Amino acid sequence: MTDQGFRACTTCGTLLAAGTRFCARCGAAVAVAAEEIALAGGRRLHLAADTLDLRDLLAVVEAGVLYWRRRLASDEGVARERAAAAIKELSQILDSLAMQIAQGRETVRITSHLPAQRVAPRPCALCGRGNREQAKYCIACGAPLRAGLRPATSAPPRLQVKIAARSDVGRVRQLNEDTFYAGEFARADGAVGTLLLVADGMGGHQAGEVASALARDGLKQALTSALSAGVPASDEAWHTLLTQVVAAANQQIYQQGQRNAQRSGMGTTLTVALLVEGRAHLAHVGDSRIYLINAQGLGSEGATWLKLTTDHSLVARLVDIGQLTPAQARTHPQRNVVYRSLGSDPTVEVDTLSQALASGDQLLLCSDGLTSHVEDEELAAIAIAETSADRACERLIALANERGGSDNISVVLARV
User: What distance in Å separates the CA atoms of residue 231 and residue 237, rounded to the nearest whole number?
Assistant: First the structure.
């Protein structure tokens, strides 16, 4: 770590802001500090960067079984059946963990699922930015990439962004605790960028609705204030700014929860994208998501979508260590348990990432009310198939509702 709180990427040497998960220049994974999950009785589950202690994880699952046994004794009808199914699934995980511990295994390694990198094999001799093989001019500076081409006589065309956004209460919940925002924001120099965000609130007595709205308003207020002091000149500076403004929003939610007994313990996820001069600067806490979609393909395997965020949820960790399959995680009764959110603690760790944008790209932000019912491949297929961004949002929400609509559903789609 440097004196300014930055660390150097061990692959390419680029300076990275504290809390950065992936190098914005080369995409390499960056070692991060260990995380912890608070457990009942004052215990904490230690989450190292790449391993989990099996005995600590066993305590988490046992606590889940105890919770659902209490529900089984007090609930009736469908709720009782749900509790019984939860106990059955968790008991299978308990058996697996107990067997591993009996065999002498103490820890389990967490596999890292890094987002594939955009194929950009043609470097610009002027600015160094990678470009697609078919590119004639650099997407960053407009310099010619092929012999015989004349330099651009003017700046490269500014990327235009079309935005659509929708939110729906779903078919089970009585209140929509999701909040979204999609619009422009003014910077200190008068230029304009695009701000996109989704927040999924949690807490009783409408506290979740309050928390997600506070996250939106607090972030916008902190962002406006921060940009009045100057505009970041690098990806790392944007990461630092985003970490600061998310921390400010977290403080507002936490303090209101401390002052108001009915809102005690309220929290929210927060997933943000700032689109500025051909780049998307992202900040993420919780299990809402951001996808990058392009019909022309984004990786060496020709995939049309990349998930740019990592879910901060218990089931995501269980999938990483092989205790659940992705299909089981999608319907697991504890799939909504997140171990990192805004408002639960006075401080919060924020994932940050920067991504170059190209013509044809789509950024899709959504709450887990969508991804609980719609597969990643289906999200991408619908976003690509629909010529209207509004229609794409409507179809995605309709599909989630058709498959149960078990949670609030929010979608923000930005097309470059």
Answer: 9
